[in-house]
Amino acid sequence: MSNDWSGDTTRLRFGTEPFYAAVGRAFVAMCAVVPVLFAIEALDYWLRLGLDPLGGIIPRHVSGLDGIVFSPFLHDGFDHLYGNSIPLILLGTFVLAAGPRRFVYSTAFIMLVSGLGVWVTGSPNTVVVGASGVIFGYFGLLLARGIVERTWWNLGVVGLVALLYWWQLFGILPSDPHVSWQGHLFGFLGGAVAAILFRR
Question: Residue 4: its pLDDT value, please?
Answer without folding.
Answer: 41
